[in-house]
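Something for you to look into today, if you have time. Could you write out one complete protein record for me, on any chain you like? The space below this message is yours for that.
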Amino acid sequence: MWKKIIGIGAIAVLSFGLAACGNDKANSSNGSVGKNVNYKITGIDPGAGIMTATENAIKDYKLDNWQLVTGSSAAMTAALKKAYDKKKPIIITGWNPHWMFAKYDLKYLKDPKGVYGESEEIHTIARHGLKDDHPDAYKALSQFNWTEDDMGSVMLDIQEGTKPEEAASKWVKDNQEKVAEWTKGVNKVNGEKIKLAYVAWDSEIASTNVMAKVLEDIGFNVTLTQVEAGPMWTAVADGSADASLAAWLPATHKTYADKFKGKYEDIGTSITGVKIGLTVPKYMDIDSIEDLK
């Protein structure tokens, strides 16, 4: 008799536990996910195009209770690591190419309203007059293009502790055939000064340092200046920077591209198929931005 009662009780407890687990999973996309992350989206620097897009997403999807937290790329990935190691929920502003997609099992949230646009391209932009003043730098910059795997290898080296300039030198040394394509028809120079502006995204740190090394090997005296997206576009437009390899188009930097239209030259596409959007670990039971309501 007692065995039967105990057995029935155990089944009841087990059934309740399974139901509770099922409810937790179902509710994770019905408001509890917001509570679990304190209704916060972990972002990067406030001037970044992805931050503007995320502010638009909050409005378009009517995420009235949600807050976009500004910081930096490094702070965002540190927060991701802390949450991921403990299997805690987190929502970040993500983009690829980025080493975090190789290191962690992540997914983009679906964007049915298309706020973040389709896949994008990273363009090289230059100040007016660069072609006349430094034709060899202009030619090398305009011929620069590589793949996500190329960029990813440099980013991963940097993330694992290698200094950006050392990671760039290693990649250039190991990829002379590709470098030869970028420098085809380019002449050696003797100390001509070139200033490149870039944003502190891991992808742009990689590309800018690689091209800086290539230009230095040609004989240029290269200065790298790290700024936010707005000042980067401003610097190219007003000529205080010669070029940038960090223009994400057509959506991410659309505001700046439109604002400075006619004041810069788009001289080449370095990589295609890049993407931005809200990103979460795959262990989170959520698939769409709509689920955040």
